[in-house]
Write a structure and sequence with these properties.
Elements lengths: L7 H22 L1 H24 L6 H24 L2 H8 L7 H25 L5 H26 L6 H4 L2 H13 L2 H21 L5
Helix pairs in contact: 1-2, 2-6, 2-9, 3-5, 3-8, 5-6, 6-8, 6-9, 8-9
Length: 210
């Protein structure tokens, strides 16, 4: 088995890691994160499992650094828009939860960004490929999921929803980055469409009445 592919051991550890991360989402964020982050985590794990089953070679880290961290840098701009426009209040209220405190909202995001940044380095510099789970979660939900969810929230609520403007860039950036892992832009957009089919009902049917 090539060292550039996801091994059975990587899959086993990555699966356990995904279960731990999913549990944290449930305990820390409640229903708002269950209906958004958990579907993203499931799809990210699915991509991870496909990489193992298909024995698709991972991209070389050196060639991927500029794209990954370029897309990741945009996440800070997206976070800034969300912070300024009240996402920490409106998002949980949409799902019947109390607004997140500034400390919790900033803390969740900053800790996540640390994991996404360091995880990528450990995957491609140290060969810890099970850490593709948080890397792929960032791509699948942090980028693609944000694009899907923010557009749908605007459609559903009939007005601007915090984070909408900067999330639009992820319709291009997310699939472009995912394509480097799954082999083609067409396949990446197919995964995006499949994720939308999962995510839109999840974030719609669980909303509190407007």
């Amino acid at each position: 088995m090539s060292t550039q592919t996801v091994s059975r051991r990587d899959l086993a550890i990555g699966t356990l890691l995904a279960l731990i991360i999913g549990t944290i989402f449930v305990l820390v964020g409640g229903r708002p994160l269950v209906v958004t982050f958990v579907p993203g985590l499931v799809v990210a794990w699915g991509v991870f499992a496909w990489l193992h089953v298909s024995q698709t070679a991972l991209p070389k880290g050196g060639t991927l650094y500029p794209l990954y961290y370029g897309v990741f840098a945009w996440q800070f701009i997206h976070f800034f828009e969300e912070y300024l426009t009240g996402f920490r209040s409106l998002f949980p209220e949409l799902y019947g939860a109390t607004p997140y405190s500034d400390a919790l909202f900033v803390g969740i995001n900053m800790f996540s960004y640390f994991v996404f940044a360091v995880g990528f380095i450990l995957v491609f510099e140290k060969g810890l490929k099970f850490l593709l789970i948080p890397v792929l979660f960032y791509i699948v939900y942090g980028a693609i999921g944000n694009a899907i969810a923010h557009v749908w929230w605007v459609i559903w609520t009939g007005g601007y929803f915090p984070g909408f403007v900067t999330a639009l860039a992820y319709w291009i950036l997310g699939p472009l980055l995912l394509s480097r892992f799954v082999g083609s832009l067409g396949r990446a957009y197919a995964i995006t469409a499949a994720f939308a089919i999962i995510l839109i009902p999840a974030i719609t049917l669980t909303m509190s009445p407007i």
